[in-house]
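Much of the work behind modern protein science is quiet bookkeeping, done one molecule at a time. The fold becomes a row of whole numbers, each drawn from a learned catalogue of backbone shapes. The protein below has been through that process, and both of its lines are reproduced in full.
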Amino acid sequence: MSLLKRLLISTLAGFAILPVAHAEIGRIDIFNLSHMDIGFTDHPAVTREMQRSYIDLALDACSANPEYRWTTESLLAVTDWWQSAPAARREQLLGAIGRGQIAIAALPLNNAPTLDRDEWLQMLQWVPEDLWNRLQPSFAIQDDVNGFPRAGAVQLLDHGIHRLFMGMNSDSGGPPFHRPTAFWWKMPDGRRLLVYLGDSYPMGYSYFHDSDWRRGPVPHVAETVYRPPHAGDFFKTDERSLRHAQEICLKRLRSLEAQGYPYFTLVLPFTNQWRMDSDPPFPPLADFVSAWNRLGLKPELRLVTGAVAVQQFEAEAGSSLPEYSGEWPDWWANGEASAPREVSASRFAKAYLRALGSPVFGALDSQATTMIEGLRKDLCLFDEHSWGGANSVAVPDSADTIGQFMEKARLAYRSLALGEWLQAKLARNRLRDASPGFYVMNTAPLPHTGWVAVPTRAMRVEASGVDHYEPGMQPWSRPRTPADLSPENDPAVFPDTVPKQTAEFWVENLAPNSVELLKGGAPVRETPELVKDPWGWPISVRWKGMGRPLFTQGLGDFLSVRPAGFAPRWTLADMSGGKHGQVEEVSATAGEVQVVETGHTLIYKQKFVHPRLKRGTRTLEIWRTEPRVQLTITIYRLSSDDPESFYVAFPLPVQGVLPRLSEGGMPFTPFEDQLPGSCRDYFAIDGWADYATKDGHWFWVSRDVPLVTFHRPEVWSRRTTPAPADRLLAVIFNNFWYTNFVGNENGSMEFQFDLLWKPSIPDPQALANTVASEPVVVQN
């Protein structure tokens, strides 16, 4: 095939390449690894124990056969092993690394795109520096997941890692370019990361075999009727089997070449055929490679580590690789919305840990810093990509499904509880020498304005300066009449309409990283310009100095999307070609509005009705003197195993403007500043969107939700062009997946959002952290 024709085919396949010296694939570099799903095949505790044991198996195999090579995908597995291994065994591992028989990949986990900046810092500081240097990681692996945050790429480069192997699973997503291929990924600071966009981790087997060996397809390790493969099960070394394997291999290679693969070397991962995920080493692979080469079969095979494979590929083809830049959004990010309560808990926990870095607490002792590091690692584990077992959706009430998700959820709730406790401990310690009274502490990086709530039962005497009282629950008292119970009080154990259960104090411009005695603010009577719909719900609010309103009609609208037709769990597959019309949209209907006026805000509360909800309420609080509103959505999702997705709408007067978003602390502009071919349907973000216009900034902040889309509800239409972004939709629930995520989270859920207008925003992340934070109140 002519080089010109090869270039044309490769360009049409979706990626651009430059001429290289070779016209045919002449060598395959195979690396053997175990893919790390913390769950999916087995309970996470079992998975980690198995992965730890695989390092011992690999060491024994390397000792028995100097030709064998093994790559550890997960630094977490190495850490687990190192902590329990005796000194002599540790030295054996370091020796195998030194000889090039074992390579350690740099990342501990295959992560979803919801890590914040501090988590990405932790990811590349998973082991102490001296151990990092002894393990000698020189490349990273991200398997399964359909994207990789630029924040992670920057951290890799900061730690001397400039090669990444991406072995994504294209189910329910896909690679940005036709693969296998490679490219340079350019960061905003000009540095570049080499990305080998390879086949998925089990695909090495299929290059030499025409049928799967595994049965199941995902048996537990404890299912003794299944067994891991032995020598002779596949990759057989007799001449007949070798020549048949070559026929299969050459057919695959010719297909790749026809599709435009232009490089001499193909890098090929191989995991075992027991379950493919979390499977042990396969030492007979070394004998297969040796026998192949002794027979003189082509192409040449090499069993190498992943580190050697990508390093030598760079040396061979690095100068000819195309260069791309932009964020790499993940198709699998929508699975995060299958467990809204746990995601919210994890985000509160992250906020506590950020707050503990405030100078208001002073220097932290080693005990506190050690606890923070441990909690941050737990939150990284929560943001790991496995959210359930292989049958988590098909069999949602099984012991396996519940056990796997409880282990995942524990990471969020435990971090939340311990982070809150540590903050309280440090706050009390900070004020131990202060005079008696209630103090308010702002741990955020910018001034805070808003309500501070104190339970009235915490007050020994009548408080002064209270601006507003809220009714609420009175624990350990008995409801006497139906009026003592709100419609939301399903358990009906304690009354929850009791007056004056919470005292609210208005705090005005509390300085960042400061502590003051708590006192109320003087009420104001200013009112912004409001327009309401016939029910009384605000559809436009504008303050003095604003040329446009803060929002337009439809703020807080609730809507859902569900499949239309049979076989609902396969709707995603049916939509893979960008088809439409396979889902139906249902909007909520709303009723009368209740209004509460305080000295500082106006509060509008409205119930809404939707066939998938037991109830729903939206509450809009409007600041009197500052262009800001806070929207709180509470819903009760009825139990159902059917797939559906829920959205909350934010229509904004910013036509023609794309917002700036952030993922892992790295800002980007959707549709424009992202890899071509990456996910445009929805975006995992740090929790804010900044619309910069000639008339100022419209700034949206989410306390709970890390996933947004634009213009219309998106399940999986595979957008190829930008969408109008003046209607932001927060994705608050999505269980369209058929595996790996939560199938039926139901019951009461709450989501809180803020919308602001500012003439300018120098630091969006600092503003978002401040808006989403809650000051600490301490009674001394």
About this structure: The first helix runs from residue 3 to 12. The chain has three domains: 28-321, 450-463+471-507, 550-771. Residues 1-22 have pLDDT under 50 and may be disordered.
